[in-house]
Amino acid sequence: DTQPANVADLDFLRYADVLPEIATRARADGAGLLLIVGHVCASETRALAPLAARLDIPFIGGGHCHQEINEVVDGVRLVESGFFNRGYTRIELLFDTENGVIVELESEFVPNRTGREDPEIAELIVDWRARTDQAVWEVIGFADPSIDRKSLEMAALILDPWLEAWPSADVALASSRYVQQDLFPGDITPAVIIGLLSTTNQLVEVDITGRQLIETIESHRPLMAGIAEEQDGYRMADGRSFDLEATYRVLVPEALYAGGDYYEFYKFDPEPTYTGIDWRQPPIDWIRSVASTEREPINGFLSD
Question: Which of 59, 181, 265, 279 is the most buried (most CB within 10 A)?
Fold first, then answer.
């Protein structure tokens, strides 16, 4: 994901609208065989297959949606290799350059097997780690067991400290899409938090109605703090009853305010308050303050 503001001046065109022109250009430049190596979901590659067939493009490689596919649509081979480097797809293609035809095209998903540490790669990691600010490797806490990226505990770990850092806000919301991984057992360092929240974001405060807040929660199911869902509706964390017509101050990452992950906060409040607070700093400060250890991991502080 990127900050929507970073690409505001770009025009994004439909693949089907530009592919014929690109294919024509490539062949004019001398290409005898065209393959598409993309980073799009299976639904998009399937939709593009009939056009690729008409353009004599026999292969589309996809990605992004963490799917594993290996299929043929309209004579076009579609491949995606899953996620997290758990495997790869090996393509064997035999092309008759004299006649411009494919003689053979086979594909096979190959699971990656855990191997021994590569000494050269390990040396590179040590070298690059030494070049970074050593403060990011300071141990500030300990976690055990894992904290799932979509869990209530993750919301407490990240969002509760936001509200402490900006006490004028009533509620904090974040998309789990922007939490890149679970918090795994072991030492917590600022580098670990950077791994969780890997994009650059500041916190933005928006004023929205209770109705807009609930519509957002129920359509997106974000991580949240300051508000809780109960059997009979919603209640504020401080015990106040929830009012659909009232105005609430809500903290969100800047990317969500700008429309990331299909949120629409920018429509609700065109003049938000930019807090200047990096979204990683409050969790880092809070984790450091509670001084969790292997004997008293951070998980226990989240349930208090």
Answer: 279
In a domain, 122, yes or no: no
- Which of helix, strand or coil describes residue 251? strand
> Residues 83, 22: one domain?
yes
The answer, as to whether pTM is greater than 0.85, is no
Q: Is residue 210 domain-shared with residue 290, that is, in the same domain?
A: yes
204 shares a domain with 94? no
- 255 falls within a domain: yes
- 249 belongs to a structural domain: yes
164 and 198 share one domain: yes
Q: Structure tokens of 21? A: 């022109």
What percentage of the chain exceeds 70 in pLDDT?
A: 99
Radius of gyration of the chain (CA): 24
CA 55 distance to own-chain centroid: 33
How many distinct structural domains can be found in the chain?
2
Contact status, residue 90 vs residue 70, Cβ threshold 8 Å = no
Confidence band for 3, pLDDT divided at 50, 70 and 90: confident
Unique residue bearing structure tokens 């609430």: 248
Q: Is 56 helix (H, G, I), strand (E, B) or coil?
A: coil
Q: Are 37 and 173 in the same domain? A: no
Outline where the chain has alpha helix (H).
15-28, 42-54, 119-131, 152-165, 190-196, 210-220, 254-257, 265-268, 281-290, 298-302
Per the listing, tokens 């990127």 go with 2
pLDDT tens-digit series, residues 127-169: 998 998 889 999 999 999 999 999 999 999 999 999 999 999 9
Percent of the chain exceeding pLDDT 90 equals: 87
How does pLDDT run across 100-132, given as a tens digit for each residue? 899 999 999 999 988 888 999 999 999 998 998
Asked if omega into 297 is within 30° of 0 (cis), the reply is no
DSSP strand E in 97-178: where? 101-111, 141-143, 171-174
Residue 283 and residue 149 in one domain: yes
Question: Does residue 127 belong to any structural domain of this protein?
Answer: no
